[in-house]
TrEMBL record:
Compositionally biased residues, Acidic residues: 122-131
Basic residues: compositionally biased ranges: 56-67
Gene3D superfamilies membership: 3.30.2130.30, Vaccinia Virus protein VP39
Signal peptide: none
UniProt source species: Cuculus canorus (Common cuckoo)
UniProt subcellular location: Cytoplasm
Protein name: THUMP domain-containing protein 3
PANTHER family named among the record's database cross-references: THUMP DOMAIN-CONTAINING, TRNA (GUANINE(6)-N2)-METHYLTRANSFERASE THUMP3
Principal location listed in the UniProt entry: cytoplasm
GO biological process: tRNA methylation
Amino acid sequence: QVHRLRSVDNLFVVVQEFKDYQFKENKEDALKDLEDLVKKLPWTDPLKVWELNNSLKKKKTKRKKHNLQSTTSKEKLSGDGEEEGTDQKDTGKQEDCAQNTAGEEAASGQDIEKIQEVASQNDEEEEDNEQSDAKDELQAGSGSETKAGDGATSEGEAKVLKFRVTCNRAGDKHCFTSNEAARDFGGAVQEHFQWKADMTNFDVEVLLNIHNNEVVVGIALTEESLHRRNITHFGPTTLRSTLAYGMLRLCDPQPTDIIVDPMCGTGAIPIEGATEWPSCYHIAGDNNPQAVKRAANNIGSLLKKSEKQESSTSSGIPLDIIQWDICNLPLRTGSVDIIVTDMPFGKRIGSKKKNWDLYPSCLMEMGRICTPGTGRAVLLTQDKKCFVKALSRMGHIWRKSQTVWVNVGGLHAAVYLLKRT
């Protein structure tokens, strides 16, 4: 169930978190403390969750060979699953651990706002301070290859597990780099478990998230970010599927709603919409023929996937794509329930200067096609100044009901929920 959450980029189980970790002033001492920490951490339960996660993953790939072996394993599953949940809950206020928060929020089905912030906070890990180089190597020596201990082996195999440590560090008060922290912490993990360090073909990824004085140690449960679903053909500004899902959730689609993305790019929003809200009808369009082609390819590969899954009875997906001009849409006045789109930021596509003309005419045309009274729009942009100015002129058509701040690839952007007057 946790893997089915749609607004979460990454999942991991928390080994332990420290809300106010006191780092030593001196680099050697600070790193020595991190090394010593490894022996004191409660690894057993998180490793059980990791093991369970792996066993479920293997089952999935073996085409659901057989149901869980027995009721006992089912009990174990629910037990560990809860544990994972609580572990996740613990990290509520941690930015680097945004993933888990998203897990919790989505599970409880509340606060889309937080979910969105969270889905995007993961981007911060890629962009912020030194976090990008954090993903680089831990250069722990190759070490001795003894049997993996500490309950980390599954079904008593004598296989030596391979591991790597990834450190995400944010904050300017640390006297060490993320690489140094990963290297020394990794060395201690290696000694403790007698695992073998491997940067590329690892079994276990240990995460060390350091955000100012907060430290969270975790074990990754996802190999690659969950936002890569559904999209096979990427454009210069393809939106993450996780963020697209959050935007759609924000406008609360109801069955039979007509949902339009007038600037769809590679189609991340309508594709996410058609897969998650199949009882709505989705229309995607863009003025760029290249973008329309990419989106059509993405829809094509999605169709192939759904045909495989549902055999020959599949009736396709409720989604059409068209090339059009955003300021002159071929749609009847008042015929659309919801508009969800990622507006041009004026960075990689278009320009800030063009946005001053584009935004007001977009809002005008969107207002025309949207149903008065019940229609709503969810718009994402990083050009906030221009958008707010355009919106202030459109008070007779649109009323802003909510703003959600998100991080899109390191850019501070905003999602606006508008209601049609």
